[in-house]
Write a structure and sequence with these properties.
A: mainly alpha; two-stranded antiparallel sheet; B: 114 residues; mainly alpha; elongated
Chain lengths: 950, 114
């Protein structure tokens, strides 16, 4: 396979795995883990194969048409390649870890399906070749992280945290979309290659600051930068494998990933330095300080992650290529040591039953291996020499020494600030290790702690091994990876950098030593304070970002919404409808007022028969409007009368298909409403009083005026259009091409099943969805008790089957079944050439079924005839869609029709268009939907009686 | 003059439908929507102009002359609208039956006016 195919495979495999994982049984823990692990390994191997290309500095590109002006494109350069390794590699370790972390009660299919889909979305962001696509996958990661954080949805904190993460990151995603659109507007393309070449254009454009602010808002929310950091600690109620993956290696890295991706384009200005550099600095120092005072192991790690992401952001904000190298290096290092620390915290939680540092103590004697691993990883986090964290941190310290930013004072203060923050880092690393593993034996733990299972430790061991190996032999291990990644981002600006462990007693090394010593001292001094178990950090103003977030949310989505509703809206239906009708009237009348309406007088003659028909029809309509309150059955019959005259109009004016469909639908609608009448309350007898009439008069006059205005407007408009001759429209095309291209002579049907087949597919989908909605609503519907009383006409008839009431007509109706079914099939089959088709055929078939219900009663029919409406709908929809997909196999677009001329005995020269199969799909779906709705309604009475007589 | 008849028909159906739409009882609204959908379907159909004896069914051979047939496009639009109209009527009916079951009244607001 070529690299292009492999790249597509890399993106597709996790999503396919996710779908498969969803359908495995709920207790298949091992199968799920094997599947997810296998998927991750395949993706990892596929990713590794790209090394040959990116090592040469080449880029793998795949593109095919997606939207107008935007291709679906994948673009793998060294940087994207490195990230795909991290995502798939750590993804695999997390899958392995999760197998032992999740308990047998957890619903594993959901977990692995979300995890794999998340992995796919991450790869989507990393590999995307255009900005729109990046935003699309970016939002997908927000969505799946929401589902993963809220995985234990019975836990209120998990729901809360998931919701907060979703709101913050998707609000940022919206900003990002805006920023991306601005960039696309500046460059004239969303293609990443073109955007990356257009750095000078973007930086000098007047909209540069707008684009910059919007994009960094997206990045900061995703990477939990101050002041948007608060969602990350709250997301710690996620299962620990999720935290290890999302909050160390993957999702939170996306923000800094994007900042580095666009670094060549957006950086280099003072605005960039102030915005990105300052945010990074504040987040770095604040996060490190706050982490010291966390009492929850995972909370400590969350603030530590915030701090390290701040460090990376700060490095990117320094406008120096060497700092960008350090940033990319630290992204990888942080992923390894932080993922292993999260996993270690998970082990402690799993085996000791708590994550509270105040309760934990002396675990080194119970779980020596885990303790050793955690110590090494924490040392890497703190920047102890011979570990990977030391290398990138030293590069960072070196960078902080020679800044040339817009604020000289800040430049000079920077080395001191970062050394202090480095000391904070050491202090919280010490707290993690000392608090959990050393000291006296723990008392009163929920469980007796012991070592984790063998394979649960393996992922931690692999990651810690990576920390050590990279720390000792950086040039041969991480060197090549870092080189391809950095070269892909910086291109010709790539600076010379050295990955040696020992640079001599340089100033940065001294800063490291000061930070280590200072951190140890700080932790020693704070021991007393921390042991008292205070909940918040001293010296920090008591601002709870989470509480502010909640308050803003309540204000916007509840108080303001209520206030608006109280002032300008109503919960009552009639005023709302009145408002809509009046608005429509105004919107319709306004242009007429401005432009006038062209009338032309056509010379068609008056048909007396049609006129008489419509006099009856109008009388029916007005009568229905008049009687609908007190005489529902009358109103129903009158409305059907108006429908029949409509039907006559269709057939009169050359629309036989419409007339057929209208007639059939009229029948089923009448049956439907008749079935519904049963459940409406008895109308109180009308007592006319002068006072009542007087009170209602203004309302009635107003509504009558609105109704007359609407009717008059519609009539005027319709006449104005009809009196002007039609010009040439697209309809000519349909008439000309129906036979040669659609293979049918009935143009209306050819439009439905061929030219506009995609619309029809949508329509039948809606029809199916409505039928299912009706069905599920009726399953919950409880009819009121008073409606269950037998009607006066039925009293004394108990014990008789409903079929007995219609003894003679019943025989005829039963006999009609075959005839109506044949008619339905006839209408279906001839539809392509003569009036008919799937819609009317399907409804006719449903009528055949309903007639049987009416003749024999529900039980009689269902003993003899098994209609499975849901199955019919499924088959119909699948058939229609499959007909469309079939065209792909002949290299035609979706739903391209093909006409075969078949010679079979008896049917010589038969035209067999593929559109016929589509129409059969429509036919089946319409049968299913219509009968599902009607049968569900008919079953209500049956269910109600069944409940009465248990 | 047939155009006048159809235009008046659309007007009467619309007026009756809108009147019922503004009434307080659920069944009135359901019938109103039904009448309104007749009006809208006729209106869309009429946008293709009224032709007598020109059903859009072409001959099985030769090149058809578009001017000889009624406009098929509004017909195709209305045909699906009729079927969807049935489905929405059903949904409305079930929603109002469920509302009646829940609230005990068939007033559109779910409570009797004071």
């Amino acid at each position: 396979m070529s690299h292009e195919h492999l790249t597509l495979l890399l993106l597709a495999v996790p999503f396919v795995g996710s779908v498969v994982a969803m359908f495995l049984p709920a207790n298949a823990r091992n199968a799920e883990a094997w599947l997810a692990g296998g998927i991750a390994v395949i993706a990892l191997v596929v990713a590794v194969t790209g090394y040959g290309v990116v090592e040469q500095g080449d880029v793998i590109r795949v593109a095919f048409l997606w939207l107008p002006h935007v291709d679906f494109s994948l673009r793998v350069d060294g940087y994207a390649w490195m990230f795909s390794l991290v995502v798939t590699g750590i993804g695999f370790l997390v899958v392995l870890y999760a197998r032992y972390y999740l308990s047998p009660q957890d619903a594993v299919p959901r977990f692995y399906a979300f995890l794999l889909a998340f992995m796919g979305s991450m790869l989507g962001v990393v590999l995307s070749g255009n900005l729109i696509q990046i935003v699309f996958f970016w939002e997908l990661t927000s969505l799946f992280s929401f589902l993963l954080i809220g995985y234990w949805h019975h836990n209120a904190a998990a729901r809360e945290g998931a919701r907060m993460a979703l709101i913050v990151t998707s609000a940022g995603g919206l900003c990002l979309l805006g920023g991306v659109l601005v960039v696309g507007h500046i460059v004239g393309s969303y293609d990443l290659d073109r955007v990356l070449r257009a750095g000078d254009v973007i930086r000098t454009h007047p909209l540069y600051v707008t684009a910059l602010v919007l994009i960094v808002l997206g990045a900061f929310t995703k990477s939990a930068q101050f002041p948007f950091h608060f969602w990350l600690p709250n997301a710690m109620s996620a299962p620990t494998p999720v935290s290890a993956y999302l909050h160390s290696a993957a999702m939170v890295k996306l923000g800094v990933f994007l900042l580095a991706r666009l670094w060549p384009v957006l950086s280099g200005t003072d605005e960039w330095m102030w915005l990105v550099g300052a945010t990074g600095l504040v987040t770095f120092v604040f996060g490190a300080y706050a982490a010291i005072f966390q009492n929850d192991l995972k909370g400590l790690l969350a603030y530590s992650t915030i701090s390290h992401l701040g460090l990376i952001t700060l490095l990117l904000g320094l406008n120096s290529p060497l700092a960008a190298v350090a940033a990319i290096f630290h992204m990888m290092n942080h992923a390894t040591f932080k993922a292993s620390l999260f996993m270690a915290a998970g082990v402690i939680d799993h085996e000791a039953g708590t994550r509270d540092i105040r309760r934990l103590s002396g675990l080194v004697r119970f779980m020596p291996i885990t303790a050793t691993l955690a110590m090494v990883a924490a040392a890497a986090m703190a920047g102890v020499p011979l570990l990977n964290g030391f290398l990138s941190k030293e590069m960072f310290f070196a960078e902080s020494l020679h800044l040339a930013g817009p604020a000289p004072l800040l430049d000079r203060a920077m080395p001191y600030l970062v050394t202090v923050a480095g000391a904070f880092t050491v202090a919280y690393a010490l707290r993690f290790i000392h608090g959990a593993f050393f000291g006296p034996d723990p008392v009163d733990l929920p469980r007796t702690p012991h070592e984790a299972p063998r394979w649960m430790r393996v992922p931690i061991e692999v990651l810690v091994l990576a920390c050590v190996v990279v720390g000792v032999f950086p040039a041969v291990t991480i060197g090549p990876l870092l080189r391809v990644a950095v070269r892909a981002v910086l291109g010709p600006d790539t600076p010379a950098y050295s990955l040696a462990v020992w640079h001599g007693f340089t100033l940065p090394f001294m800063m490291s030593l000061v930070a280590l010593a200072g951190g140890a001292l700080l932790y020693y001094m704070l021991r007393g304070y921390l042991a008292r178990g205070a909940d918040d950090a001293p010296l920090l103003p008591d601002i709870d970002a989470r509480r502010i977030f909640d308050r803003v949310l309540v204000t916007v989505s509840w108080r303001w919404a209520r206030a608006i509703e109280r002032r300008v809206a109503t919960t009552r239906l009639s005023p709302q409808l009145r408002l809509i009708v009046v608005a429509a009237l105004v919107a319709g009348a306004w242009p007429l007022w401005q432009r006038g309406l062209p009338f032309d007088v056509t010379a068609s003659t008056l048909d007396p028969a049609l006129t008489i028909a419509w006099i009856v029809g109008a009388a029916c309509a007005i009568g229905a409007a008049w009687q609908a309150k007190f005489h529902r059955l009358t109103a129903l019959i009158l409305a059907s009368g108006a429908g029949l005259v409509t039907c006559i109009t269709f057939v009169w004016f050359s629309a036989p298909d419409l007339a057929l469909t209208q007639l059939a639908v009229e029948l089923v609608t009448a049956v439907l409403l008749l079935l519904g009448l049963r459940w409406l309350p008895k109308r109180v007898p009308f007592q006319w009083t002068l006072a009542g009439a007087r009170a209602a008069l203004p309302r009635r006059v107003r509504d009558l005026a609105i109704a007359l205005a609407a009717g008059g407007g519609m009539a005027t408009l319709a006449y104005a259009v009809m009196s002007v001759p039609a010009g040439r429209t697209i309809s000519d095309f349909f008439v000309m091409h129906a036979l040669p291209e659609g293979g049918g002579t009935n143009v209306v049907n050819v439009i439905l099943v061929d030219f506009r087949g995609f619309d029809t597919l949508g329509e039948i989908t809606v029809l199916g969805a409505v039928a299912v909605a009706v069905y599920s609503l009726l399953r919950r519907f409880r009819p009121p008790a008073e409606s269950l009383e037998p009607l006066p006409q039925q009293r004394g008839l108990r014990g008789r089957r409903s079929g007995d009431d219609l003894l003679l007509p019943g025989v005829i109706m039963r006999g009609m079944f075959a005839a109506i079914v044949v008619l339905a099939l006839y209408l279906l089959l001839r539809g392509h050439d003569l009036p008919g088709g799937g819609f009317v055929g399907g409804i006719t078939f449903a009528i055949a079924v309903i007639v049987q219900y009416m003749a024999g009663g529900t039980r009689f029919v269902e003993d003899r005839l098994r209609i499975r409406p849901v199955r019919l709908m499924g088959i119909g929809l699948a058939l229609a869609a499959a007909t469309g997909v079939g065209a792909w196999f002949f290299a035609h677009p979706f739903l391209t029709s093909h006409v075969a001329h078949v010679d079979v005995p008896l049917f010589a020269g038969l035209h067999l268009p593929t559109a016929l199969f589509f129409d059969v799909g429509v036919f089946l779906l319409v049968i299913g939907a219509t009968s599902l709705i009607l049968i569900a309604l008919a079953h209500q009475l049956l269910r109600a009686h069944r409940r009465d007589q248990p | 003059m047939n155009e006048v008849v159809v235009a008046c028909a659309i007007g009467v159906l619309t007026a009756s439908g809108v009147w019922l739409l503004l009434r307080p009882r659920t069944f009135q609204v359901a019938i109103g929507l039904s009448l309104l959908s007749y009006a809208v379907n006729l209106f869309i159909f009429a946008m293709g102009r009224l032709r007598i004896g020109a059903a859009p069914i072409v001959a099985a051979a030769g090149t058809p002359d578009p001017a000889a047939f009624a406009d098929p496009l509004p017909q195709a639009l209305v045909l699906t609208a009729i079927v969807i109209g049935f489905a929405t009527t059903a949904l409305l009916l079930v929603v109002l039956l469920a509302a009646r079951g829940l609230t005990g009244t068939d007033h559109v607001d779910g409570r009797e006016p004071e």
